[in-house]
Amino acid sequence: MLTTCGASDSFPYQDATGLACGIIENATRLILEKQVSEKVSCHQCGVILKDIDVRGHVGGHILRSLWGVGEDKLRQQVDSILPCGFCGHTSCSIDLLSLSARTLQSHSSCSRSHKFSYGPATKFSKNTPSTNVPLFCTLCPLNPSSKKHPVFWKYNMRHHIKDYHPHKWNSLLDEPSGLDPALSEKFSISPQEYSALGITRTPGALITNEIPQTRTTTTTKSKAKRKATSQPEAGPSKSKKCGS
Ligand SMILES: [Zn+2]
Ligand SMILES: [Zn+2]
Ligand SMILES: [Zn+2]
After folding, report:
1. Half-sphere exposure of 13 (CA within 13 A, CB side)
2. Which of 35, 58, 60, 209 has the most CB atoms lying inside 10 A of its own CB?
3. CB–CB of 236/67 below 8 Å?
4. Closest ligand to 58 CA?
5. Region entry Disordered: which residue ranges (predicted)?
6. What is the mean pLDDT of residues 31-45?
């Protein structure tokens, strides 16, 4: 296997640095290095991104759109119906592949899709606060042919559950309820994540000023605080339709 090499007397067997280009793992490394060095312009805000940072960046646009947080000078909004976690548009497919019993990898038709380590991406970090990853919806039936549950981006699960699993939706709280603990844990978004991505209010709590240590849920304390302050809740923007 050959790949692009610099000028060299010994090309195509070695590049100018002496790297043996005919060895697949070296060629693969060069290809990967080329891939990670590519830059793309965010469809929404135009900022130039490393292609491997797209998911984390666009996740912020999606979550802010979901909660109606305005962003000035966007070139375009993310689509309101099941936005792709890589580009913010509706049309891209998303799937999860099981590489091993414990390792998942996303697979998408999006031209901006990139590989990422699934496990770390599910956890908030200051550098990559968005945990928008594809999730299996275990409330949906298994696909008869693939034997898998349908896959949705995490930030799209609110609308999916609300529209397709209304028995798991509490209309008064405008939140899912009665979810299996495993799904609930995967679905949850921490106050730190909301705060880092510019969302100050959710149905469960005010995020600013007082950041609890556990995930956002509607607690007696937060209810009391809302009642005391009489501040209106910010709800997610309504989508016209959700579903695959
Ligand atoms: Zn952007
Ligand atoms: Zn896409
Ligand atoms: Zn479902």
Report:
1. 2
2. 58
3. yes
4. 1
5. 205-244
6. 73
